[in-house]
Every structure is written in structure tokens, then in C-alpha cells.
């Protein structure tokens, strides 16, 4: 097939553009004859900013428009934050290889550099994530968790304006944007990140073997095994990306270790577990852990 152009769909936020250009640069380095064309798009999640993520509704709040563009043939590749991707993709689409994963942890950002324990009693902590809210309240029930939405720049600005004493953000986003905000990592296992956090999801049409072959140059085996385990865990729980479900995978050699957690939204109760197995059977590891938590009553917390 004599193709030379790959049209890459991306959200318009500065972070999304940074992520898509990272992918495009690596594709171009591996295949110099390719021309990657950026196609910025606006998703429902970008438009609905006055509601928390779990109330905004809709399947794949940040991805539906890009999936429709793929199916129409308007773009060839969509670059997502893996944590935003629904477990079940639209019919006719598939996930490509997983590139090198950035730091998956959450971080606490404040003007004073406080740790979670050092935050003043009743401090306001900004996040639109039910998972972050639930874990914050599990550790500090006195905190006021306020729903701050918007892109990374908007949330940091709201912190500077005094709308909250601290924010919980993804380390990967800050790192990719080169922001030096005062931050304290929220370390696992005390605080677990979202499924797939820090990884990029490369979505394409299921029959596009030509593009899939070229994306193989971006594959990182450890990142792929870790995200497969985490997504299988989420799938076994029947959960979506905006439920209080958290996971943390580590790959050492050919072994994969997975921690998983389900937290009631008020943080008052949680179930968690761990599972280990071959990295080559990552999805089996995730499925076993999810089924184990369901057997322990996780459904009642969701």
C-alpha cells in the first residue's frame, strides 16, 4: 500500500497536543517517509466543564468524537490519555501498541508544598475525579474536596487564585508540560492511580494492518503489559474510567505485580487486593484480581 500520510486526531488542550506531537515525532523518526498531519478536535468532555466527570455522563467523555472521526475515515489514528479510554472501544476500532509510560502516580500540588498529612484541617482540595476524591477522604475525612474542572493550566490558575489550598494532579501531565509546580507524590500503595494513568492509548481502525505495523516501533513491552492488566481488572469489575477504581502495576523482568482498589465515594469503606503472574498473561492477572474483589463485595461500593 502506497500510503504516505497519517492523520492524527487529538484534543485541542495543550497537554493533548503535546502528547500527540510526541507520538508523531516518534513515528516520523521510525518511518522518515511518513508525513503525520495533526487534526485537533473538541470532545464533549472539553465542552462540559460545569459538572464533575462522573455527572457529565456519556460513554467515553473525551473520546467519542475521535472514535466517530476514525470510523468515518476522517482521521487514521487517535491519541488519547489511556485513563480516559472506555474499556470497550467502538465496534470496528482497536488499540495499537502502548508506548513508553510516563510516571503513573498522582501528586499533591500546593503553594506551600504540603504533604497530605500536613494540609490544614478542613483544607479545600481540588479534583474532578471520584477516585481521587474517595481516596483523599479515606485518608483525611476532614478535607473539603471541591470539583475543579478544566485543563491543566486552568486548574493551576484556580489554585493560584485561592479557589483551593491544594490540587491532586497526574504527575505525567505536569512532566509532559514541563511544569515545575510544587508537588508531593502520593505514593502507592497508600494512594493508587487511575487505570492506565501515565500511558497513551493509540486507537485506530481494526482493519488497518498497514498503520498497525508502523506503530509497532513505538511499543514498550512493560507499559503494554501493565496497562493490559489494569484494563482487564477494570473490565472484570464492570467499571468505567470515572468510577472510584484504582490500580497500580509493576513489571519486573517477566513478572507482573498488580494492586487494585475499589473505594466507596465517601472514602468510608474500601476493598483492595493484589495479584501476580507472568507479564505475558497480564490480562489474566487483572481478571483474577477483579473477580476476587467482586467476590468480596466490591459491587456494593460502585
TrEMBL record:
GO cellular component, one term: cytoplasm
Molecular function (Gene Ontology), one example: hydroxymethylbilane synthase activity
Domain of life: Bacteria
Reaction(s) catalysed by this chain's protein: 4 porphobilinogen + H2O = hydroxymethylbilane + 4 NH4(+)
Cited InterPro entries: HemC (IPR000860), Porphobilin_deaminase_N (IPR022417), Porphobilinogen_deaminase_C (IPR022418), Porphobilinogen_deaminase_C_sf (IPR036803)
Modified residues (S-(dipyrrolylmethanemethyl)cysteine): 241
Keyword Transferase: yes
Residue ranges annotated for the Porphobilinogen deaminase N-terminal domain, each copy included: 6-210
Record-level GO BP terms: protoporphyrinogen IX biosynthetic process
Cofactor note: Binds 1 dipyrromethane group covalently.
UniProt protein name: Porphobilinogen deaminase
UniProt organism field: Limnochorda pilosa
Taxonomic lineage: Bacteria, Bacillati, Bacillota, Limnochordia, Limnochordales
Gene name per UniProt: hemC
Amino acid at each position: 500500500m502506497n500510503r504516505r500520510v497519517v492523520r492524527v486526531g487529538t484534543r485541542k488542550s495543550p497537554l493533548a497536543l503535546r502528547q500527540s506531537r510526541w507520538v508523531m515525532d516518534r513515528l516520523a523518526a521510525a518511518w522518515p517517509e511518513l508525513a503525520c498531519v495533526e487534526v485537533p478536535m473538541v470532545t464533549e468532555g472539553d465542552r462540559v466543564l460545569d459538572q464533575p466527570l462522573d455527572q457529565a455522563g456519556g460513554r467515553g467523555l473525551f473520546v467519542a468524537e475521535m472514535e466517530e472521526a476514525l470510523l468515518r475515515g476522517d482521521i487514521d489514528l487517535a491519541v488519547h490519555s489511556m485513563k480516559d479510554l472506555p474499556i470497550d472501544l467502538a465496534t470496528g476500532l482497536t488499540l495499537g501498541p502502548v508506548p513508553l509510560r510516563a510516571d503513573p502516580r498522582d501528586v499533591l500540588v500546593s503553594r506551600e508544598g504540603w504533604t497530605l498529612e500536613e494540609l490544614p484541617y478542613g483544607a479545600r482540595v481540588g479534583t474532578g475525579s471520584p477516585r481521587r476524591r474517595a481516596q483523599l477522604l479515606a485518608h483525611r475525612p476532614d478535607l473539603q474536596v471541591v470539583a475543579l474542572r478544566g485543563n491543566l493550566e486552568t486548574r493551576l490558575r484556580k489554585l493560584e487564585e485561592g479557589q483551593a489550598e491544594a490540587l491532586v494532579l497526574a504527575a505525567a501531565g505536569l512532566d509532559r508540560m514541563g511544569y515545575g509546580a510544587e508537588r508531593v507524590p502520593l505514593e502507592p500503595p497508600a494512594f493508587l492511580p487511575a487505570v492506565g494513568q501515565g500511558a497513551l492509548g493509540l486507537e485506530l481502525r481494526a482493519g488497518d494492518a498497514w498503520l498497525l505495523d508502523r506503530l509497532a516501533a513505538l511499543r514498550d513491552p512493560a507499559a503494554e503489559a501493565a496497562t493490559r492488566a489494569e484494563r482487564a481488572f477494570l473490565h472484570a469489575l464492570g467499571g468505567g474510567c470515572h468510577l472510584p477504581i484504582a490500580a497500580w502495576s509493576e513489571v519486573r523482568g517477566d513478572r507482573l505485580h498488580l494492586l487494585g482498589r475499589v473505594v466507596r465515594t465517601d472514602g468510608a469503606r474500601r476493598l483492595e487486593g493484589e495479584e501476580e503472574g507472568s507479564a505475558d498473561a497480564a490480562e489474566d492477572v487483572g481478571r483474577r484480581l477483579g473477580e476476587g474483589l467482586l467476590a468480596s463485595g466490591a459491587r456494593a461500593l460502585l
